[in-house]
Design a protein that fits this description.
This is VWFA domain-containing protein. The protein has 694 residues and is an alpha+beta fold. It contains 21 helices and 16 strands. It has a six-stranded mixed beta sheet with strand order 7-6-5-8-9-10, sandwiched between helices. A hairpin with a 3-residue loop joins β6 and β7. α5 crosses α6.
Length: 694
């Protein structure tokens, strides 16, 4: 077959293909320099034209890169038209090393190499950026926005990808923070430097200057807020008997502080000192005081004097009060309202899910004809269940199980609704009580503690009481919980585990729900002939004025069925060298009183029976040789002393003397007793954890 003769066009096409398949020679430096100069001149011209148009400032590199991109359009490389460099066939007849497509490719490649070397140098300077970038590209993370240049593409891949990597790392870190509860308290984090807070929340930071700030701001906003709030209370100090011989306080049977301290120690952290209320640690335990025989006198009182284990020469005075335990036939009917916080802050495993389980446990302790209503609050309050007989347990459980967390926290509105439900089903012969379960974060509506206190006090006078169950950490508002419980004639407990819910709502349910006395006050008058100084361990938030003791209008603590209260004074006897106060130069010598020289102090206990507006009085002297003759009672006194010493060590008390955690363990182990529920064994383990906690 005869071949068709090649024309000029075919020859040019054939030559072009052959040339393109050859290895290009090294670029001519002069040619490269001319094209780079032309490109920069064009860029400068375009930049000057665009300077007055602010909307085009972001594209200042576009002209340069457009002239360096691979293209056959020679108009982008000068002012010559296509006809100046091509023949009438449309093909460029210039040598390949002068063709724009080759020169543009070389120039663009050179810039890419320079940019790559610069970027690699940055990675060598900042290894953390290298790690982030490697992770970004290994994950093949997509870009969020389009780009117009290689520079924009590289920066966007690094920044966008890094933000996604950091978000993933932050999510993992947040999970670890929740499970381990890494923050000691709001105060500790408020005092920490901002850089340290950021390092704790996210160890990997991006070092690209401008975008890094945005990433850091994002991390700061997403970091957990450690907002646990406790009343700032100073520890009771030493008081001279000559200056003030009378000490008066309201009893306290709350246990919230102990449970919160336990949670923190189990997480390897020491609690903030304001979270440690000594009296609540002491009263957490069930001391084997002998109960009274009948309810006509609802209390049995016990006193004991022993040597102080932390200050040689001082003495400890123990005051124990045991309440009457109601028989099953004596337990009145209950009209209860569960007021449950379902706001967004409760959406954690240790909060709303534990609330549901806890309320389910309480149902098992109630009588079939008792009534339960359920009110909830988040951004607003609502009734989930109208007053329903406990015999319809499945209906109550279904209402509980359907609850979900979300929204803000209109706590005051929820409290008002709960009281409305309690009033609508009020039982004048029974117990009318609201049980509030929350982390205490009221942030919508009336959030002032004083206003809430006034509201609760008014409702208390109508016979509706309020008890508070606290849940969760990191957002726990203990100060508000204490205010509500103390002024609502109720108790405050903290539920950190299902086991604690079992203790509070099942084992000690009668003491939580059924009061046997209210407005219970203690007054101790010290004998100046035998006692030089004294201090009360704990009860700082329960102090009363001396004149409040006989004033029946002044509110005080409530004691439930079978409940017990322990108070401990440390005294410096006259003649002891362990006192902390200087002798007064002008204080007159005390005149001995016949028949009373053996007394350290005189105890007075005032209380009201439920529904009785007039108080009753119990009095008892405390003698210097008032030691228990019962080994069992002395064991209880010794264990309470170990707990009191532990509380002082946790608070960093200046009155703890030479007491140590090891001495606490030694004293507690020797006086642990039967320990049916294991609470005392657990206490000893907590002391060991406190030794190594941070």
């Amino acid at each position: 077959m005869n071949k068709k003769p090649m024309n000029d066009s075919d020859m040019n096409q054939h030559d072009l293909q052959a040339l393109l398949q050859q290895q290009p020679p090294a670029p001519d430096a002069d040619v490269k320099a001319r094209h780079m100069a032309a490109a920069m001149a064009a860029f400068n011209t375009q930049h000057a034209a665009e300077h007055n148009n602010t909307e085009k400032k972001s594209n200042r590199f576009q002209g340069l890169l457009q002239r360096l991109r691979l293209t056959r359009d020679t108009n982008h490389h000068g002012t010559h038209s296509m006809n100046n460099a091509t023949n009438n066939t449309g093909f460029d007849n210039r040598p390949f090393w002068q063709k724009p497509v080759i020169v543009s490719g070389i120039a663009a490649s050179s810039l890419a190499v320079v940019a790559g070397l610069t970027f690699m140098q940055q990675l060598m300077i900042d290894p953390s950026l290298s790690d982030v970038t490697a992770t970004v590209f290994s994950k093949n993370l997509p870009l969020n926005t389009p780009h117009t240049s290689e520079h924009d593409a590289v920066e966007e891949v690094v920044i966008t990808g890094a933000q996604q990597v950091l978000a993933e790392e932050q999510a993992k870190k947040m999970a670890r923070l929740e499970s381990a509860q890494l923050a000691r308290s709001k105060q500790a984090y408020a005092a920490a430097p901002a850089a340290k807070m950021m390092a704790d929340a996210q160890p990997m930071m991006l070092s690209v200057p401008a975008p890094a700030y945005a990433v850091q701001d994002s991390l700061a906003q997403s970091a957990p807020q450690f907002r646990d709030r406790f009343s700032d209370v100073d520890e009771n100090g030493v008081i001279a008997v000559s200056a003030n011989p009378v000490s008066t306080f309201s009893i306290d049977v709350d246990t919230a502080s102990y449970s919160f301290v336990r949670r923190m120690l189990n997480n390897g952290q020491l609690p903030p000192k304001d979270a440690v209320r000594s009296e609540e640690l002491i009263n957490y335990f069930d001391y084997a005081y002998t109960p009274p025989k009948d309810r006509t006198t609802p209390f049995a009182t016990y006193t004991n004097v022993m040597d102080s284990p932390w200050t040689k020469g001082n003495k400890l005075i123990h005051i124990g009060i045991q309440g009457y335990q109601l028989a099953a036939s004596e337990i009145p009917r209950s009209n209860l309202v569960f007021l449950l916080d379902v706001s967004g802050s409760m959406d954690e495993p240790g909060k709303l899910p534990l609330v549901k389980q806890s309320m389910s446990l309480l149902l098992d302790t109630l009588k079939p004809d008792d009534t339960i209503a359920i009110a909830v609050y988040a951004g607003a309050a609502g009734t989930v269940l109208e007053p329903t007989k406990v015999s319809e347990k499945q209906k109550i459980l279904a209402a509980l199980n359907n609850l979900q967390a979300g929204g803000s926290t209109a706590g005051a509105e929820g409290i008002a609704l709960a009281y409305q439900l309690a009033e609508a089903n009020f039982n004048k012969d029974g117990v009318n009580r609201i049980i509030l379960a929350t982390d205490g974060d009221f942030n919508v509506g009336q959030t002032d503690d004083d206003a809430l206190q006034d509201f609760v006090e008014r409702k208390r006078e109508k016979g509706i009481y309020l008890s508070v169950l606290g849940f969760g950490q990191g957002n726990y508002q203990d100060a508000l919980m204490q205010t509500l419980a103390q002024n609502g004639n109720g108790t405050a407990a903290y539920i950190d585990t299902l086991s604690e819910a079992q203790k509070v709502l099942v084992t000690e349910a009668t003491s939580l729900l059924f009061p046997i006395a209210q407005d219970v006050k203690i007054q101790v008058e010290f004998n100046p002939n035998t006692v030089k100084e004294y201090r009360l361990i704990g009860y700082e938030t329960r102090a009363l004025k001396q004149e409040d003791f006989n004033n029946d209008k002044v509110d005080a603590g409530e004691i439930g069925a079978g409940q017990r209260v322990t108070a401990i004074y440390e005294i410096t006897p006259v003649g002891a060298e362990s006192g902390l106060l200087e002798e007064s130069r002008y204080q007159k010598e005390s005149t001995p009183v016949t028949g009373k020289n053996s007394e350290y102090a005189f105890l007075r206990l005032r209380y009201k029976l439920p529904g009785d507006p007039k108080s009753q009085l119990i009095e008892k002297p405390i003698t210097a040789n008032h030691n228990s003759t019962s080994p069992g009672h002395q064991r209880e006194v010794n264990f309470a002393t170990a707990v009191a010493g532990f509380a002082q060590l946790l608070r960093g008390s200046p009155y703890a003397g030479d007491f140590t955690y090891d001495k606490v363990i030694e004293l507690a182990r020797a006086n642990k007793g039967m320990d049916d529920y294991g609470y005392r064994t657990e206490f000893i383990q907590l002391v060991r954890k406190a030794k190594i906690a941070q």
